Automatic annotation (TrEMBL):
Post-translational modification N6-(pyridoxal phosphate)lysine, affected residues: 208
Keywords for this protein: Hydrolase, Pyridine nucleotide biosynthesis, Pyridoxal phosphate
A single MF term (Gene Ontology): kynureninase activity
Cofactor(s) the record lists: pyridoxal 5'-phosphate
Designated gene of the protein: kynU
Name of the protein in question: Kynureninase
Domain of life where this protein originates: Bacteria
Binding site for pyridoxal 5'-phosphate: 85-86, 113-116, 153, 182, 185, 207, 237, 263
EC annotation from Swiss-Prot or TrEMBL: 3.7.1.3
Length: 395
């Protein structure tokens, strides 16, 4: 049985703050600052360039990747870290497309995160492919015999709607297509089972539910059956089979190592490694049960106290990730009023109040404070201020 009181105590949560924005940026684990400081003072400062060997910096992307593998239903040696999520999306989709050279179609949905669609659109233009975008509920019906790659974010960033990974992967395979799954709102939030679902590629970020810090590196997974065949367009130095031979001809490394590109961000990866310590002893089944408990309680309390809000997430918890959205015509101003009271969620255009529930540190007390604060702000219209309507650079 997972001790969520223990995991909550592992985070540096500011006093007086109810934090429901871990689906955008997780809070700092208490051990992260000391771990990074020690890395800088004992490794970078003392070892200098020898740290790549002595401190294991070079092998860090695989070692950290192995720690994430357990959380996404993958195996040892199948996940590697580095670069940004957009780069990993590009690598995965380009490799999958190249493995189906006789097909042109990349299929995604309008609930996908825009960056993924931007990447796929640019790739399609470069390799003479076609990006098709359909409504989320129409994805299965749109899987056709001309499909090369199905590119889907498992949990919709706005609504929290969760695609059925196993069913869609099976349907894609039936027509000979490959799948790429973006786990940005899944890893650390829901029960992901990549091998069990027989997925082909998966990518994800680590600054959300995995709490790796702002700009934390992304990860990529490739099914073992494809690991020595996949060859992305973006081929970098660290993905060469012998990078320090400085061979001018690219020869891919074996397995997942070929998905490395540039020099790994050692400081950021050290913070992420500290964050992953919190996951030791955490059952993914317990995590999912806790997530459903929190989101169900929040929906019930908000709907009871805020009848004018419209639920923007699936009502069935099995079809929902670990986030809840409600619609309001002045959602941005309402969220700014909430934040001013120490209840931090976020806004998603055009009119969504989004609340992310992270079972490692959120509890039912957070649910009550957030729902009651939201009801109070709506009742007294304290959101109705000009300064709350002024959009910041980051919303």
């Amino acid at each position: 049985m997972t001790d969520f009181n223990r995991t909550r105590q592992a985070f540096d949560l500011p006093s007086g703050i109810t934090y429901l924005d871990g689906n955008s940026l997780g809070p700092m684990p208490t051990s992260a600052a000391e771990r990074v400081s020690r890395m800088m003072s004992e490794e970078w400062s003392r070892m200098l360039i020898t740290g790549w060997n002595k401190a294991g910096w070079y092998a860090q992307p695989r070692k950290v990747g192995d720690r994430i593998a357990r959380l996404i239903g993958a195996g040892s040696g199948q996940v590697v870290m580095g670069d940004t999520l957009s780069i990993k999306v590009f690598q995965a989709v380009s490799a999958a497309r190249a493995m189906r050279p006789d097909r042109r179609v990349i299929l995604s949905d309008s609930g996908n995160f825009p960056s993924d669609l931007y990447v796929a659109h640019g790739l399609a233009a470069a390799v003479d492919a076609e990006l098709r975008v359909v409504a989320p509920e129409d994805v299965e019906a749109a899987i056709s015999d001309d499909l090369a790659v199905l590119m889907i974010t498992e949990v919709d960033y706005r609504t929290g709607r969760r695609h059925d990974m196993k069913a869609l992967t099976r349907k894609a395979h039936e027509v000979g297509a490959l799948t790429v799954w973006d786990l940005a709102h899944s890893a650390g939030a829901v029960d992901v089972a990549l091998l069990d679902c027989d997925a082909d590629f998966a990518v994800g970020c680590t600054y959300k539910y995995l709490n790796g810090g702002p700009g934390a590196p992304a990860f990529i997974w490739v099914h073992p059956q494809h690991a020595d065949k996949a060859r992305p367009i973006l081929q970098g130095w660290m993905g060469h089979h012998a990078p320090f031979d400085f061979d001018l001809d690219y020869q891919p490394a074996a397995g997942i190592e070929r998905m490395r590109v540039g020099t790994p961000p050692v400081i950021a990866m050290t913070a992420l490694d500290a964050a992953l310590d919190v996951w030791e002893g955490v059952s993914i089944d317990d995590l999912r049960a806790r997530s459903i408990e929190l989101t169900e309680a929040f929906i019930a309390r908000v709907e009871a106290r805020c009848p004018d809000l419209v639920l923007h997430s699936p009502r069935d918890p099995l079809q929902r990730g670990s986030q809840v959205g409600f619609r309001h015509p002045q959602a941005y101003a309402v969220m700014q009023a909430l934040i001013a009271e120490g209840i931090i969620g976020d806004f998603r255009a055009p009119d969504v109040l989004r609340f992310g529930f992270a079972p490692l540190y959120n509890d039912l007390g957070d649910v009550e404070r957030a729902a009651d604060g939201l009801a109070r702000i709506l009742a007294n219209q304290s959101w109705d201020r000009d300064d709350y309507r002024q959009r910041a650079d980051v919303t």
